[in-house]
Specification:
By secondary structure, the chain is mainly alpha-helical. It is built from eight helices and no strands. The chain folds into two domains: 121 residues, Serine Threonine Protein Phosphatase 5, Tetratricopeptide repeat; 34 residues. α3 packs antiparallel against α4 and α4 packs antiparallel against α5.
């Protein structure tokens, strides 16, 4: 990206779009083992201050794939500084400690990640079929509850007579 292009990204929407694209492209670079390109994109995206926890998390992923455990540790810790409930960053930090053979830190961090997973479950994306199924299920439940409420009202009506 040239200096002129960097100066053009002035609106928040443009900055958000850049960060989103940087995250997508960095993941593609990571899968191709083009770590330097991915790191460069993510470091550039950090300057906008948008989705910093996610950017640091992805940086940690690239560093861990490139066997740079010290930088991976730093990136995951920064992700947790920004978002203390980032379960994936905590889990991956535990993995870094395991690979660094820091057993006590691994155990402590891994247990903390498990507790976080229970308290702050990951947000999942549902596909169209899953959403449709949940809507149908909720309609059935609501219909059943209304019918039960009506039945209770009827019983109470006749019991008071």
């Amino acid at each position: 990206m040239t200096t002129e292009e960097k100066q053009i990204l002035t609106t928040f929407e443009e900055q958000r779009d850049f960060v989103e694209q940087a995250l997508v492209q960095a993941e593609k670079h990571r899968k191709k083992k083009e770590y330097r390109q991915g790191i460069s994109l993510l470091v550039e995206a950090l300057r906008y201050g948008i989705d910093k926890a996610q950017i640091y998390y992805r940086l940690g992923n690239i560093y861990i794939d490139g066997d740079d455990f010290n930088r991976a540790e730093y990136a995951y810790k920064r992700a947790l500084d920004v978002d203390p409930h980032h379960v994936n960053a905590m889990h991956n930090l535990a993995i870094v400690y395991k690979r660094q053979k820091k057993v006590s830190l691994f155990v402590k961090t891994y247990k903390k990640a498990q507790r976080m997973e229970i308290r702050y479950p990951r947000k999942t994306q549902l596909d169209t079929n899953q959403k449709r199924h949940l809507r149908r299920l909720s309609v059935k439940i609501m219909t059943g509850m209304l019918a039960l409420g009506g039945l209770i009202a009827l019983v109470m009506f006749f019991a008071w007579r």
